[in-house]
C-alpha cells in the first residue's frame, strides 16, 4: 500500500509542476522529508532503512515513471525522475483540472481569498474553510474527506498576491500549526 500512496503522490506533484511551469520532456527532482515517506508506508524507519526500502521500487512504478534514482541526505530524500517519467504523466494521465484552475487563479493580479473559495466551491460545495493565522498561512481549505482530492491547501496573502502550499493531512499535522 505504501508504494501505491507514494506513486500517486509523485504523479500528483508532477501534474502540479506541469500546471505551473508547462510540460517539457525533462528529468525532474522531487524532495520528501523522511517523515512524509514514513506516513506513506506507515512505518518509523530510519533514513538508512527507508533508503534501502526505496532502492527496490516496484515494477509498476518503473514501467511508467522510469528508472527513478533515490538518494538521501540528512533525512531528506531526492527522487530523480527521468525524462520518460514526466512524459508518461503528461501523455498518459488525466490532467488535474482543479490544480490547473487554481494555479491560473493565484497567478492573476488581484486574486482574493474569496475568489479561491469560490473556485473550490465550483468543484464541491461542501468544502472546509478554516482561518488559521499561524504566522505561516491565513487559511486552510480542503475538500470533504470522501472527495478524491485528499490535500490540505494552505493560503497566505502576501499583500500583492496569494501563495499556496498543499499538504497531505499527516504532513500538515506534523507541522503542528
Could you describe the 3D structure shown?
The protein has 177 residues and is of the alpha+beta class. The chain has two domains: 2-92, Phenylalanyl-tRNA Synthetase, Chain B, domain 1 (2-Layer Sandwich); 97-175, no CATH class. It is built from eight helices and seven strands, in the order H-E-H-H-H-E-E-H-H-H-E-E-E-E-H. The chain has helices at 2-21, 34-41, 47-54, 59-65, 83-92, 97-106, 113-123, 169-175; strands spanning 28-33, 69-73, 76-81, 128-131, 139-142, 152-157, 162-167. It has a four-stranded antiparallel β-sheet with strand order 4-5-6-7. Strands 1-3-2 form a three-stranded antiparallel β-sheet. Helix 1 (2-21) packs across helix 2, helix 1 (2-21) crosses helix 6 and helix 6 packs antiparallel against helix 7 (113-123). The model has no long low-confidence stretch (mean pLDDT 95).
* Strand arrangement, major sheet: 4-5-6-7
Mean pLDDT: 95
Task: Report how far apart the termini are.
Answer: 28 Å
List how many beta strands DSSP finds.
7
Number of helices: 8
Q: Give the proportion of residues in helices.
A: 40-55%
SS-based class: alpha+beta
Q: What order do the SSEs take from the amino end to the carboxyl end, as H and E?
A: HEHHHEEHHHEEEEH
Estimated share of beta-strand residues: 15-25%
Q: What is the gist of this entry?
A:
Pfam families: DUF3877. With 177 residues, this protein is of the alpha+beta class.
Amino acid at each position: 500500500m505504501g508504494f501505491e500512496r507514494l506513486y500517486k503522490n509523485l504523479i500528483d506533484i508532477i501534474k502540479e509542476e506541469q500546471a505551473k511551469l508547462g510540460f517539457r520532456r525533462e528529468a525532474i527532482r522531487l524532495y520528501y522529508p523522511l517523515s512524509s515517506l514514513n506516513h506513506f508506508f506507515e512505518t518509523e524507519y530510519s533514513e538508512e532503512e527507508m533508503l534501502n526500502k526505496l532502492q527496490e521500487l516496484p515494477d509498476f512504478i518503473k514501467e511508467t515513471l522510469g528508472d527513478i534514482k533515490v538518494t538521501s541526505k540528512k533525512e531528506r530524500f531526492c527522487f530523480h525522475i527521468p525524462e520518460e517519467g514526466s512524459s508518461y504523466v503528461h501523455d498518459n494521465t488525466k490532467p488535474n483540472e482543479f490544480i490547473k484552475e487554481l494555479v491560473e487563479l493565484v497567478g492573476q493580479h488581484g486574486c482574493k481569498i474569496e475568489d479561491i473559495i469560490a473556485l473550490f466551491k465550483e468543484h464541491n460545495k461542501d468544502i472546509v474553510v478554516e482561518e488559521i493565522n499561524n504566522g505561516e498561512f491565513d487559511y486552510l481549505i480542503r475538500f470533504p474527506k470522501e472527495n478524491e482530492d485528499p490535500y490540505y491547501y494552505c493560503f497566505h496573502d502576501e499583500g500583492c498576491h496569494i501563495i499556496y502550499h498543499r499538504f497531505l493531512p499527516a504532513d500538515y499535522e506534523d507541522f503542528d500549526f
